[in-house]
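ok trying this again, last paste got cut off
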Amino acid sequence: MAPTTMAFQKSLEPSSLPTSLMWLSRQAQKLPATYSYCLTHHHLATEAFTAGCMAGLGDYLAQRRQQPAAKSGEAVKSYNVRRSLSFIFKGLGEGIMWSLWYHWADRWVATVLKQAMMVMPQLQPATPLFVVIRTFLSLLIDTLVACPVIYALWDIPLPALLSGMPLRQIPHQVASKLRPMICASAQVWIPANLLIYNIPLRYRLIVASMTDVVWQSIVSSIVTVTATTTAMEPTAKIGSKEQDLESATASLL
């Protein structure tokens, strides 16, 4: 028996498996501390990297869901790597935008609450009313300000441009998909944020990441449902697909 084969078999012996599992366990235990360090010392880059990973994973799930069940003897549609790469790129920029937004929004909400406490002395940080007002203000400006701007200027046009859509068709693309995305965002993120804002800090990253993967898969399905075909069709034919877009969005939720 060759030495390499003997070494491989020895590595699979029961006595070596616990050692390998213990090493993997130790490395896994270091991940939260490593991620926390990166967030502290390289916040913007870590936020962008995380958002890119979530966007790529969300698009992968969306592609798997969009594939029709293959019948016997039929070939399964291949995975579109280029589409996922474009979503990873979208996520990188999106992570930077949301990180900067939350930094500004937190300061704005804190300023508003500080002024409110001067008028209402009973409004203190430890009271339930304070938590309710802070959560309401955060959700309000996210939904009415940040979401429309980021979706219209980045999330919708960028994947369309990277898929080959002509620049002249981008305004219609944004106009037709902005409302479905805002409605879907409200249905996903308002309940999620109500939970995230009111659970222990150590659980927030897990819940937010899981929600973001689901959200990114919905975004992928919305912005790509007609992007590939629209890029090859005359502008006059685009409007006939709007009902299909809304139906597809409703089916995702």
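PB: full thing came through this time. The chain has one domain: 24-66+79-252.
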